[in-house]
Amino acid sequence: MTAICVVHAEGLCIPIKSLRWFPGTCYLMRRLEWRAALAAEYNAHGQALLQGDVARAWQHLERAHIIAQPMLREHLRSHWLMLRLALRERDTAEVAGQALRLVLVIPGNLSGRLPIGNIGRARVNAFRQMSIPSDLKKFVL
Fold first, then answer.
1. Which of 29, 72, 84, 119 counts the highest number of beta carbons within 10 A?
2. CB 36: neighbour CB atoms within 10 A?
3. Do the beta carbons of residue 65 and residue 32 sit within 8 Å?
4. Which segments of the chain are extended strands (E)?
């Protein structure tokens, strides 16, 4: 048996007391770990905004984008949150870039043509692969 704690989007820790080995457990555990990492980045983004640290909020959204990119719904969510932050900051270039990326997410995910490691910001080419932070590589590769 393995004890796992999954961090929910609201920051609550939800323990899974007994996860017995069965086919697909490795996939399930990776998925839970992926979701926890994504939730942690979104939570850190929210905390940074509450503290008025916009630069740190952007960094956490960039990291969330790297993790979320392979999953359509979460990929859309990451760009939606970036768009909201750009609107809040009245950054017209970023707003335009995020609007374009929201349009590109669906065909990109469906075709599998995603630039690995791309941070999702308007200041970088939407098709450019980028290096992945070492602590995020297990979620992408």
1. 119
2. 17
3. no
4. 4-7, 13-16
Averaged confidence pLDDT in the chain: 85
- So what's the pLDDT on residue 31? 82
Q: What is the pLDDT of residue 24?
A: 53
Phi, psi of 6 (to 5 degrees): -100, 130
**Residue 87 CA to its chain's centroid (Å):** 19
Dihedral of CA 119/48/89/84: which sign?
Answer: positive
Q: For the packed helices 72-88 and 54-68, what is the interaxial angle rounded to 10 degrees?
A: 160
Interval 87-141: pLDDT, tens: 999 999 999 999 999 999 999 999 988 999 999 999 999 999 999 999 999 888 6
**pLDDT at position 138, please?**
86
* Helix, strand, coil in percent for the chain, rounding step 5: 60, 5, 35
- The label of the residue with tokens 């910001």 reads 121
